[in-house]
Fold this sequence. Notes:
heterodimer; A: 2 domains; 7-stranded mixed β-sheet; B: 6-stranded parallel β-sheet; disordered N terminus; binds magnesium ion
Amino acid sequence: MANTRIISTGDAIRDGLTEIACKDPSVIFLAEGVADPSSVYGTIAGLRNHIAPERIIEMPVAENALTGVAIGAAMMGKRPVLSFHRVEFALLAMEQIVNNAAKTHYISRGRHRVPIVIRLVVGRGWGQGPEHSQSLESMFALIPGLKVLMPTYPKDAKGMIISAVEDDNPVIVIEHRWCHYAQGVVPDGYFTEPLDGPRAIREGKDLTIVSSSYMTLEAMRAAEQLEKLGVSTTVFDLRVARPLILDRVFASVMQTGRLMTVDTGFRKFGLGAEIVSEVTANCFDKLKAAPVRIGMPDHPTPSSRGLVPGIYPDAIRIVREASAGLGIAQNKIEYAVAELIAQRKGLPIDVPDPFFKGPF
Amino acid sequence: MTNTTSPHHGKALSLLREMLYIRLVEETMATRYAAQEMRCPVHLSIGQEAIAVGVCQALRQSDRVFSTHRCHAHYLAKGGNLNSMLAEIYGKDAGCIGGRGGSMHLTDPEKGMIVSVPIVSSSIPLAVGSALADKIDQVDRVSVTFFGDASVEEGVFHESANFASLNKLPVLFVCENNLYSVYTPLRERQPARPLTDLAKAHGMKGIAADGNDVDAVLAVTQEAAEHARSGKGPVFLVFDTYRWREHCGPNFDNDIGYRTEAEYLDWKRRDPVEQQKTKLVTAGSLNSHDLESMKSHLQETINNAFEFAIAAPLPQPSQASQFVYA
Lengths: 360, 326
Ligand SMILES: Cc1ncc(C[n+]2csc(CCOP(=O)(O)OP(=O)(O)O)c2C)c(N)n1
Ligand SMILES: [Mg+2]
């Protein structure tokens, strides 16, 4: 068995990218500040020690063209990994992503492939504001031909990023900045994680929660409190938004009869909307209550800490919404909420929680 | 005050005062940032003040300015309200947009500071659109888009320049070349060629000047504004300068390896504020006493604005859902 270490999701992504870069010489890296002192929050740091400098390419601040350049290189046999510091910067490249990356294999009847990985970081906290904090996974998940990953935990992140690079399709990897800090046990060396859909992080019989990315960390905290309230909860980390493979979720909802989805992005037209729709269609007669969707409200995210309270879903909201449907006594709910508040130790609303220490 | 009253002296002095004002505002921000009450990213213009001031002094109040993530100096030079700016950065209800944007979205439309957009090059076409509206309405006005050296790498810059030039729109494209995009030097992002060649490619007038010499910036911007106003089309202005502190944040970062202390010191010797001071002192139109009193007067105003911003209340969470639609 491979040795393991406790590392963060950010470091796990770097390790995964380093492994596959060493293994496959066709892997190339592009980013703005590709080898700068930050190297995309450390997630592509140190590549120079492992691979030839020609494979580490500085991107001018020209997202649209460089995404197209990477797609062209991918069609001709390279495996480019593009890293963007924010989802928003990739919006300039939407045309290339939606038309060329997603459709070239289809249009060419399979004669071309676009094995590209496009990493997008979701910002949050410290007043990032309306144009540096959007979680737009549903925009990408809408498009057939793309794969869309949202890794949360370190081990998944490492295995999934390696699988993403090895995949012959364009893969969008949406990484929440606050997930980068999550710690967990990760095997050393090369391994892959199949891109086959949700993973049950904990299993229970009363309620099924499907959450993605950072919201899985909140859902897990909520599930702990729900357990104390007598609600045994299954939490699925969605991991793969497209292709959306929900068989495991269907099986769980067949047992629990209750579904809640928790998104890092918008509630309306969000991933949860699609999941709820599929579950309802497949498990209709087993549902005991209408599914609940939690996500971002119907407006942009402002900068001020005064405006942010109530915008981001959290464990407290999950506990409240879950227990409301289960007829749990109000005083018990308040007790659970008080405990969740205490766990934050008075930290301001706009900094990441230190709670997500593994091992997971 | 020193005993000189020529109009030129008045202008020179006000250029100095404006630059000093902006410098002191941002130095005070840098000092106070550690208190963790300005809870948003800040991109300081310390070292680059001559461009904002020289350009805006060549403009009329009715002229319009469009800016980027690095917008403090543009906002202040265009006459933006200091209390509203600091309250915005402190995330307060009294901020210029009620705390919605923080430091990267500064706006004061009454003063012609139309918008700041923190996505590289994103505000460039907006300035062109403003100029298009003015051309249709035959309004005598110029629209100015400030941007960094990295912005010309984006397609939207070229698309905007092409359209503005084709239609002879009254736009000033102002490129502040501080030689870096975050940690990446210009030479690793663009081929070696004068940036003004980009103007040639788009068939428009291009002028380069020393971005740390406020007189030079003022002079070429006056010429450019004249050109644009008279219907001859847009002008591309390139000003070389240098950002003294880190890309985002209050600290110096010459020690982390992407640039050298020597390079910084070289540019610091060409401090736009000091150069202007020296000019005035050498001309005998400013003495150290006047300078000190100007400085302490400005600092007092600034301190009051900080106190205002710190004491101001936060907005209510219920406001977050307002203004999604007109
Ligand atoms: C489209 C887009 N890509 C990347 C970024 C990230 N980013 C923010 S500021 C910046 C540097 C821009 O450099 P420059 O235009 O020279 O302006 P400066 O910061 O030097 O004033 C970058 C790359 C962004 N905000 N928008
Ligand atoms: Mg620059």
